[in-house]
């Protein structure tokens, strides 16, 4: 009876072995699995090459690059207001005008004043020339009578008369020259007054300083306005930028015209301005980014973007495939020839969204990594790969 049981056990073991349901322990030493051994369903993939970016999310306010509040340069009645809120104008088009009749009259007066002062100046120059001729005549008479006096041919009284006439002629020349200088100065003053009158007349009509849209209007037509009173607010809404305030810890990492910026849908730009100093109270500094033309926004709105602090092409894995272990170690599971899991150490680099750069990729290029189901995997666990084409 005992012999029959032994033979029966041997026969059963042989049948199980032939059916592949009995194997020696240890995954990787045999390609057959033990009875009831559990396979973990996973997907695998090799290291993939992609662009990795170290970024910081930032929010900023959209502002126009060109903007201005236009005020009245002269006082008067606003007789012409050619725009309303929402209207667009190109550079050089008329925006508004102030009553200019008085200014035109002042310009006419200044032009006439120029004619008068110019005539006075010419008259003063003629008087100077006449005084110089008289001086020359007095000088000759003085020299002649001086010789006659030395030869005792004339009296002392007569000599003194010509000497006095000569001194007076010299003073008349000085007076004539002073009159010329004064007339010339008055002419220059009149010319300056004419320039001011023309400018005042020009300032009565205001044109658009740049291509713009009227975003606010502070007065109505036919109102009286004073010098410096605000009339219109203008913005160039076709040229916008984003103003952001970011932490001072990033100050040395931001370079104008170099640091990339990512908007939605991977539309790119660069930082165009960085404040020369950090605000001591908030410990932040301002940057500006010119909005790409294909991004349509309105000034005053909030805009989200990412500053790219580092950017490079490298190999990596989905971040979920990399697991944290004791001692701040990072591992991932690979698949050996027996479809069993084997852990390898990972040196993580830049984490960009769902992916993580692997800095020791060179030594792992021939491996396939578990990218789903890894949380159920232990070292040596048998795996069932559901994407074997990888």
The largest β sheet comes out as: 6 strands, antiparallel, barrel
Unreliable stretches covering 5 or more consecutive residues: 1-26
Q: What's the CATH superfamily of the largest domain, by name?
A: Helix Hairpins
Write down the secondary-structure element order.
HEEEEEEHHEEEEEEEEEEEEEEEE
Structure at a glance:
With 390 residues, the chain is α+β, with helices and mostly antiparallel strands.
What features would you describe in this structure?
This protein has helices at residues 2-19, 101-150, 156-203, and strands at residues 40-45, 48-64, 67-71, 76-81, 88-89, 94-98, 205-207, 212-217, 224-225, 230-235, 240-247, 260-262, 268-274, 284-290, 302-318, 323-325, 329-335, 341-345, 348-352, 355-358, 369-372, 383-385. The longest helix is centred in the N-terminal third of the chain and has 50 residues, at 101-150. The chain folds into four domains: 23-46 and 322-385, conserved putative lor/sdh protein from methanococcus maripaludis s2 fold (Beta Barrel), CATH 2.40.420.20; 56-65 and 239-312, Elongation Factor Tu (Ef-tu), domain 3 (Beta Barrel); 67-100 and 205-235, RNA polymerase II/Efflux pump adaptor protein, barrel-sandwich hybrid domain (OB fold (Dihydrolipoamide Acetyltransferase, E2P)), CATH 2.40.50; 101-203, Helix Hairpins. The strands form five sheets. Strands 2-11-14-13-12-15 form a six-stranded antiparallel barrel. A four-stranded antiparallel sheet has the order 3-10-8-5, with no helix packed on it. Strands 7-6-4-9 form a four-stranded antiparallel sheet. The chain has three helices and 22 strands. The radius of gyration is 48 Å and the shape is elongated. It starts with a helix and ends in a 5-residue tail after the last strand. The protein is α+β, with helices and mostly antiparallel strands and 390 residues long.
